[in-house]
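Quick one before lunch.
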Amino acid sequence: MPSIDTELVNKILSLKRERKAVILAHNYQLGEVQDIADFVGDSLELSQNAAETQAEVIVFCGVHFMAETASILCPHKVVLLPDLAAGCPMADMITAERLREKKRELPDATVVCYVNSTAEVKAESDICCTSANAVRVVESLDSEQILFVPDQFLGHYVSTKIKKKYFLWPGFCPSHVRILPQHILQLEKDYPQAKVMVHPECRPGVIALADEVLSTGGMCHYAQREDISQMIVGTEIGIIYRLKKENPAKRFIAASEQAVCPDMKLITLEKILWSLETMAPEVKVPEEIRLKAKAAVDRMLEVG
Ligand code: 13P
Ligand code: SF4
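Model of the 1,3-dihydroxyacetonephosphate complex:
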């Protein structure tokens, strides 16, 4: 295990106080980044936290769409993303222009947009959702036709829970599709006592084998259950750091060691310090797009 540079950590923490900043980190971040964060969570928890924080600066340790969501909710705060290259390939599988074309083809459909999307795409959508609330969001809608973008697998999962007519955008997460049904079947043989929890971005064949389908925050919560001591974890492997830290006596087995999101790993302690020193790179959504995107995000937050 690499040793942590305490001088670097102390510099970050003191500059954070000076700048009146808060450090938010996603559950897939490197362990040392999770350790210095004020709050670690899933996309929904992070956006709720950003919406409520009293801090003047948000250092977002995650990927670009997450920092954009914070900027959408907090236009008067400075939102820093320590590496602007940290994107989400799934979010880039749709553009606002292509979504507008699809909406013209499907004028009666309500557009439900996974939060893993650009602000421009959110601005073209009726309501957002995250993996934690996608079922509740779709359930809250009167519309019988749903255009779900951009994750076909999350959309498919919702379609198995709520009966409506769905049009699924063909996007997917390149990290989660690496988890295959045969990985789960083998691990179930190797660890017969273990519960299987998977993220709804996984393939339907993987979801069909799971005991629980959960957001990353939901997984952290589920892992605390006293009656469960072994878990097969079907999501990006960065979450295992937090699961082990919070449950040292339990065993967590990655469904696939290949399920890595390289974008999430771009944020390092050094980049966090540079970011606080230079107050850059900043993520700021243009006001016209922000207002439209905020309407979709606010509708989601009302559902909870
Ligand atoms: P969560 O909202 O469940 O943390 O998922 C975010 C994400 O990017 C999953 O790949
Ligand atoms: Fe995007 Fe997948 Fe990475 Fe999540 S894990 S940020 S969906 S590429």
